[in-house]
What we know:
Elements (H helix, E strand, L loop, with lengths): L1 H6 L18 H19 L5 H12 L5 E3 L5 H8 L7 E3 L11 H8 L6
Parallel strand pairs: 1-2
Amino acid sequence: MRNFLAARGITLPEGADDDQSxxxxxxxxxxxxxxxxxxVLEKEGVKVxxxxxxxxxxxxxxxxxVAVVSASKNTREALVAAGIMDLFDSVVDGNVVKDxxxxxxxxxxxxxxxPWS
Length: 117
């Protein structure tokens, strides 16, 4: 949120984690954005790409573990809304890894999948 606002020349105080969604802070605006996103997700759902789902299903049939990696804190909600949460062995999202610049080792440990050699 901070970078999004800064790119548009908008300066707000950081705020605190317990700011309400109507606070005129980066934390408050971020919470409001998240509330609106979840409303849209509930009303409109998620567009699922059939080819991607078919690929994941085929990989699983072949015994390949499949993970979703996303910086979003709403990844699980989106997968549930799309009806495909059960296709993935692991989900590493913004709730698991708060620093999106995490190292490869941490990522591999998080999802418990060995890297390709």
